[in-house]
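FAQ
Q: What does a multi-component entry look like?
A: The components come first, one per line:
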Amino acid sequence: MTPDQLSSVIVAALEALVADGSVTLPDGPPSTVTVERPRQKGHGDYATNVALQLAKKAGTNPRAFAELVKAQLEASDGIAAVDIAGPGFLNITVEAGAQGQVAADIVAAGVAYGTSEVLAGQSINVEFISANPTGPLHLGHTRWAVLGDLIARVLQAAGASVVREFYINDRGNQMDLFGASLEAAALGRPTPEDGYQGGYVADLAAVIVAEQPGIVDLPEGERLVAFREAGYALQLKQQQDQLDSFNTHFDVWFSERELHAEGFEGSVEETLQGLKDKGHLFEQDGALWMRTTDFGDDKDRVLIRTNGELTYFASDTAYYLNKRARGFDHCIYLLGADHHGYVGRLRAMAACVGDDPARTLDVMIGQLVKIMRDGEELRLSKRAGTIVTLNELMDEIGVDALRYSLARYPADSPLTLDIAEITKASHDNPVYYVQYAHARTCRMIANATDLGMSLPGDDFDAALLDHERDGELVRALAEFPRVVASAAELREPHRIARYLEDTASVFNKWYDTKECRMLPQGDDPVRPANLARLVLVHATQTVLANGLGLLGVSAPERM
RNA sequence: GCCCCCGUGGCGCAAUGGAUAGCGCAACGGCCUUCUAAUCCGUGGGUUGCAGGUUCGAGUCCUGCCGGGGGCGCCA
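Then the predicted structure of the entire assembly, as tokens:
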């Protein structure tokens, strides 16, 4: 019996109580009830707080209400015992057979185990990283890469239709500055004011000159553009290659330039005209503004500056409309804490174009991440030219450990990573702890195969999984779909990692329990209990592999 | 000044309003002829920043304060 099934059993019990008049609920019985794994041993297999939540509505006290539910539940199939504890919790013990059956169900579901339909029908765009193509990706981008990719993965697992999108800011002042910086480096001139520094600029300039020797002889102006475009292409390619290596794959790379292209449907120009028609724009001091204060922003925002240049916000508005026009009913933006000032204007902008931002827009603000080596912070400074790049991080830490280490913390938690700690190849490193547990299931299954054991099919006797540790493991495995669904709904993929650590721990404890051996010992024959436990190991392998897969981390068969 | 995030053992962090607040590191002590010891078992370590409030129940929600980070440009 899964938690969801148990929830249904409890709902049925409540319905029966209402039907026979034992209790009166003004709103009727709830359609689902909360069922959780108690933290404390001795509180049963599952606990529910329905009595605490419904007693007042039913005009009685929690314990009296609980008594009625208890009697009803005890008569239900698959329930072994029900206790009332504390203020009115119902602690439920499930029959071993009903519970053990879950293991076989997990094996049958296979790679699909953990997926659900809770977000079915939703079309979601997840935009993340969106770095300028003017430099290498660094530590901050790395965190958003992991979070964005994982949010996309859990949303998909929950049934949503998802597109991962990278918005390329390939237009405007920064690009020109980038071109000028490359040009200066190639010509041996000093870097322009506020220009790009760092060794990578000189390296890039050298590559460009090697590929296009004639570039330095181009006329002034033309030369800058040539450097800009060549640098753009190289830098973008590098970002794309590195993200591919990092197991983060985008569906759409959207160029800001497209939004300004002549004849592009939904261009910035058209967008502004549309907003003007709706009366959300006004002119002041020679600039064109959007009246975002009508929708809760701190101040109105400029779209066209006095000098005639469009602001990024103008592009952002057209881009948002473009996403909506492509059919996304939900747009997720993943921004760094240094961009949180954007939230107000994005929401107001969505309202200006006629949307309800609470429904269509989800701006997630990720907190900053620091990284330490030998007790010292590796500082990111473009000015000083010292940048902790994604490439360096992958080289030094490895893709699995790097992804996992960033995946196991919530986005709004400021984070300090220690390189020594996350690269340590031992059990105290969570990524290897989980991977090791998976590898262990693989070895066990291989050993079982060598002994001629195979999955029992219809002969599976779930009631043989009757040890306390068996039950703990089955219940841990049974949580997986709920964890994935909540990770999707809350946009909190770190829950997957935490869950896997917990489950790996339960599995390891089970493994070390003599009474729960899967393989027959010595010359013992293979008994039905051995086969039942083989099912359990298969189910564990399924959950660990599916969970690691959701994190984009490999699930090795041997370590 | 205003806005956002954070404050939980020495350190890094979990905990969807539930019961006795967990995990890893660091410290100390145990178990390998038996399915992988990268596992497991045990010991010590906490007034969840402070003060109120809501609730049957608060680390979690509300108010105020203290401390840290970030943001408040016709820059990105």
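Q: Is there any commentary attached?
A: Sometimes. For this entry: Residues 426-550 of chain A form a domain with the Isoleucyl-tRNA Synthetase; Domain 1 fold (CATH 1.10.730.10).
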